[in-house]
Records
---
Amino acid sequence: MYPREAVDDALLLFAGGVSRVEISRRLGIPAATVRHWIRGSRRSRPAETACFRCAGTAIPESYAYMLGMYLGDGHIVVGRRGVQSLSVFGDDMWPGVLDEVEAGMADLMRGAVCRVRRQGCTQVKSYSKHWTCLFPQHGPGMKHTRSIRLEEWQQQIVDARPELFLKGLFHSDGCRTTNRVRSRRPDGPVREYAYPRWFFYNTSDDIMRMAEAALDQLCIAHRRARPNVLSVARRDAVAALDRAIGPKT
């Protein structure tokens, strides 16, 4: 006998368009059992788990982080029967980020979270009918081609936890690099030194402004190196951002 949660996950995946064979593979449940759940009448389909917005429950702490991830690398697709899939694409170089995204999705919405291997990256994916409740910035076209604005309740969350919001943004579209510089004095040898820098890349000016506002709130100096590149380079600013968001692993 499998727990009710396993049945619910299987039925929700099927409603989202996932085949029985793929459901069996993802959940580690025999295909015949999955087929029985889908075709049979012994267990009813699950009542959709409401999100914290609709249920009026406490906001999970992970939301600020997941909002940053969604704005950077997130994508929502609305499928049949109104079932929505939230996907975040992450580079395989950063397994720790993939783990945090998977945990964040599970924290926001009870249900199956799966990983799909792509060329050079991994898609972390979850199904629900409420993802657009949590991320109302969903809309047609790429994010940089349309206006992106936070709703008041989202802004309150970002203002309360700017470090988690920045962590999501920099985990999705940011990197920490070492800048190496060589200089020669007129009367001396070549001098070489290195210093760390953080960069954030995004083609949406609205999202860039959100990142700048969160950095300002934490008093972290920054500048636009280019319209789509945000640089944190001063030694004290890099140290402050390191403390705020931790390493990207």
---
Amino acid sequence: RPHWYERHVQPCLAELLGTALFIFIGCLAVLEEPGAAGRLQPALAHGLALAVTGTVLGDI
């Protein structure tokens, strides 16, 4: 039987870290010049951020 930390706290921390990385990487994609980024660059950045955070934090 898993400890309460493994059942409640660890998944919440993983969700918090994943969401923070997702937002941080997505915002960095348009940090240089918001008008010059277009639509493809933020979309690719968010997609890659989602793939990376899912791969890194998927086992938690």
---
Amino acid sequence: MRHPLRFAIKAECHKSKARHSVMTLPHAEVETPVFMPVGTQGTMKGILPEQLEALHCNLILGNTYHLGNRPGVDILKKGNGLHNWMHWNKALLTDSGGFQIVSLTQLCELTEDGVSFTSPYDGKQTLLTPEKSIEIQNAIGADIMMQLDDVVHVLHPDKDRVEEAMYSFTDPVTEASIISDIKDRSRESGPGDESDGEQDATYNALPPSLSYANDAMAIVRKFLLSRGEVPVDSF
């Protein structure tokens, strides 16, 4: 089966290491470097999706925390994801919700399990865990997803706090739990594309966006290992 996620370097400067690349995503081909507009709550202010497409915009960002609050996972699922909801035919990237640790710093508290937020909309308490972040992004149907990260302000004076944040929510037990939990919930998602007569059972057990995310992790790991930059046991 031909995986829908591919990355190709088209040109590279051997002096500066700058490069021009093309990412083939489920909904679009995206050239890098790329200008990616931010549609926090599933919309761009003052411009229509078809106008963005006419400007050759192939990738926009959606915010996991805010979309998880409004409209929420259930409505996103009923609407068949954010692409359908906002009439967007190109690629979507979603953050993990971790940036709100900085932008909503007065409304959140870090816990051992994730981030506890006081909703700016209705004051309710919600806990954003790594598993919940992935669940929301899967409901959104993003082409590129992020694992929950502990974001620290760039001017934070405490080096120990910055180092601590590097390892938050990224232990092997947490990562294994995320993948296992999502696989269990996605058994009913149906078979994958079998048009070429081949089918990978593990690949198709995941919802489409998670399958692409798994491919992405494998590609990044292989690339870094080929450069000798990452120990084999670091992933």
